Amino acid sequence: MNDTSTPDESSIPDNTQLAQWHDEAAAAADTPDLYERVRELTARALHDRRMTLGELRAIVGAISSGVGSGLAARGGEMTEGLRQAVSGLDEAVGSAAQNASYTLREAVSQGKAFKDEELKASLEQLRALEGQFVDTLKQTASQSGGKLKEELEYLSDHLKHSGTRTGEQVREALQQMVSGLKSSGEAGRAGLSESASTATERLSMVASGVLAALSDSLKRQSDRLRS
């Protein structure tokens, strides 16, 4: 997962790849280290792939449904298994988001040309990851049945209100980006090329706006929970 980009159909994994991730996740349900197995599988699926919302939904959907199928086939209690699996997914998606933000910051600081709308689209996509992650779990629940449907719905509702590790890592990445780019912009006036300095200042402004919008959204969420 090297960069951020606008979703397109060609970026979404094919059915064969999705089936492989589903089956690997189902097999992981029989292991004692489910959290780590799911985290590693998700990280591997996301590695060196484009950060698109369509692809994220496909990967999270395949792996979460695979774990659910494995737990259901095993029988018995599945609450703790799903909790571990979702935590592993959450950690891997958040780490991928951070890596994407670092790659974007590095590209801009090195003077790569971006249009303002491209920068905003990339950062808005990072901002949307948490909601997309939770919505995908909700969608997977709606396509399931029985105890699996019940447990996934509970987990997705809980994460929607309490927040996710993905959301935390995105906010941290944006904050670091704003701070780092402001420093880079100041250094650029002394040593970087004019194009690189201008690019870092533009990205810093856009990132600051996205971060402010995200903070407002979190405040509204907190206010709703207290009311």
Verbal overview:
It is a single chain. The chain has 227 residues and is mainly α. The protein has one domain. Helix content is 81%, strand content 0%. The chain is built from 8 helices and no strands. The chain has helices at residues 15-28, 34-46, 53-74, 79-109, 116-142, 146-162, 165-190, 194-226. Helix 1 runs antiparallel to helix 2, helix 2 (34-46) runs parallel beside helix 4 and helix 7 runs antiparallel to helix 8 (194-226). The longest helix has 33 residues, at 194-226. It starts with 14 loop residues before the first helix and ends with a helix.
Instruction: Please give the largest β-sheet.
Output: none
Strand proportion, as a percent range, falls in under 5%
- Ranges with pLDDT <50 over ≥5 residues? 1-10, 187-194
Average per-residue pLDDT, rounded, comes to 78
The total of beta strands comes to 0
The sequence of SSEs as H and E is HHHHHHHH
What class would the helix/strand composition place it in? Answer: mainly alpha
Number of helices: 8
Residues in helices, as a percent range: over 70%
Shape: elongated
Count of domains: 1
Q: End-to-end distance, in Å? A: 39 Å
Q: Over all CA atoms, what is the radius of gyration?
A: 19 Å
